[in-house]
Every structure is written in C-alpha cells, then in structure tokens.
Amino acid sequence: MICLAAGVALVGLGDGVVLRWRHAVEKTLWEETWRATPQGLSLVAAYIEGAGAGMEPPPDARRARHGWTWTPRGDARSDVTLRRSGATEDGTICARGACRAMSALAGAADPVHLKPCP
After folding, report:
1. Does the global pTM surpass 0.85?
2. Which end of the chain has fewer CB atoms at under 10 Å, N or C?
3. Is-cis flag, bond preceding 111, omega within 30?
4. What is the pLDDT of residues 6-59, one digit of tens each?
C-alpha cells in the first residue's frame, strides 16, 4: 500500500495512485501513475498534455487524449518527494476511485512524500 506522509500525518492511499499537476511555466497537465510493489514504488505510466520547457516526451511516447503517454523505465523507489511551491495550483492525488487536492490530504505541508506504508 502507498502512504502519503505529510509532517507527522500518514494517510493510506491504496495500492496505486495517480498524481496530477500543471507545469509551472507551460501550464500543461502532467500525470504519473504509481503502484506499490514488493520492491517499492514503481512509476508505471506517464502523460503530458504537450511538449516544451524541458518536458519533451520520450521517443517511445504515443499520442493519447490531447497529449502524449508512455511507460517509464526505471527502478522502484522507496520514496517520492512532492514539493509545493505555491507558484502553481495545488496538485491532485487520485486513489481508490476518488481525486482530491493535495491540500485536502496534507494541508499546507511541504514537502510531502509518497512511500510504502509501514
């Protein structure tokens, strides 16, 4: 299971989450799908609305919706750090069929971490 850690608070989210946010410069939507695995947290899907400002899709990306999607490659992680600058709208976390603003789950905490639940 994936937990959201914000300060001393720990919120169980389920075995998979989708993170959504808007790029600070381009204002385009980003999405990442994370899954809990025995090795840690694995990034299993990524989506961006459009390219620009250092956010070009990889060569294996394919057109989807109004942007690009791909399957990232890489090792599982023990922790994913989410920063909240205040310069952009609040990010969204979708889990168990519901999407909520990060502030609804973590208040104003920064940074916020995704990690395997203890």
Report:
1. yes
2. C
3. yes
4. 988 899 999 999 999 988 787 889 999 999 999 999 999 999 998 776 778 889
